[in-house]
Amino acid sequence: MTFKNNPLEQAFRRPNVNLRSNPFTNQYWTTVSHTLPALLYDGYLTLMGHKPRMMKTITRLHKAMMVLEYFTSHSWVWNTDNVAMLLSHMSPEDKKVFNFDVRQLHWAEYMENYCMGTKKYVLNEELSGLPAARKHLNKLRNIRYTFNTILVVLIWRIFIARSQMARNIWYFVVSLCFKFLSYFRASSTMR
C-alpha cells in the first residue's frame, strides 16, 4: 500500500505482491502477470524501432524471486519465548539502552519510512516527483480497469452468442443495472 501511496517514478505496472504455495498457480500467474506483458512490451518496442529490454528485466526479477521462493512458498512459525523472557528480566534502564521490543513499533509508519528511504537513497529518486508519479500510477490503474472490462465484455459476448441461457442472464443483469441507475436518478432529483 505504501508504494501505491508513494509510487516509484517511471513505473511500468502497478505494484502488487501475491504469495502462492502451489507451484503451478505460481508459474501460471508469473507467466500471465510478468512474462506475457514483457513480451508484448518488447514487441511494441521492436515495432517502434527501439531495443527490447523488458524480458531482460523480467529475467533478472525472476532470478531474484527464485532466491526467495523457498521462504515465500512455505509456512513459518516463529517462537519468541526467549525474547519475551529476556525482555521481562531487563531493568527499565536496559530496556531504554537495548530497545528491541518490536511491539512498540508502528508498522505502517515503519514501512512508509522504509519505502521512502528506498526511493530516495537506493533508487536515487527525488521526492518532488511524487505528484507526477501518483498521476502516472492512476493512469496505469485506469488502463488496467479498462482493459479488464473490455476483456470481460468480449468473453461474455462470445458466450452470449452461443447460449440462450447466457443471453437471458445478460439481459437480466443489464436490466438490473438500468433499474439501479434509474433509481439513483430518481432519488437524486428528490433532494
From TrEMBL:
Question: What are its GO cellular component terms?
Answer: peroxisome
Annotated keywords: Membrane, NADP, Oxidoreductase, Transmembrane, Transmembrane helix
Q: Which GO terms describe its molecular function?
A: alcohol-forming very long-chain fatty acyl-CoA reductase activity
Question: InterPro entries, alphabetically?
Answer: FAR (IPR026055), FAR_C (IPR033640)
Keyword Thylakoid annotated: no
Short name of one Pfam family for this protein? Sterile
Could you mention a single GO BP entry for this protein?
long-chain fatty-acyl-CoA metabolic process
Top-rank taxon: Eukaryota
Membrane as a keyword?
yes
Residue ranges annotated for the Fatty acyl-CoA reductase C-terminal domain, each copy included: 34-125
Q: Which CDD domains match?
A: FAR_C (cd09071)
Give the stretches traversing the membrane: 145-163, 169-186
Q: Which PANTHER family match?
A: FATTY ACYL-COA REDUCTASE 1 (PTHR11011:SF119), MALE STERILITY PROTEIN 2-RELATED (PTHR11011)
Designated name of the protein:
Fatty acyl-CoA reductase C-terminal domain-containing protein
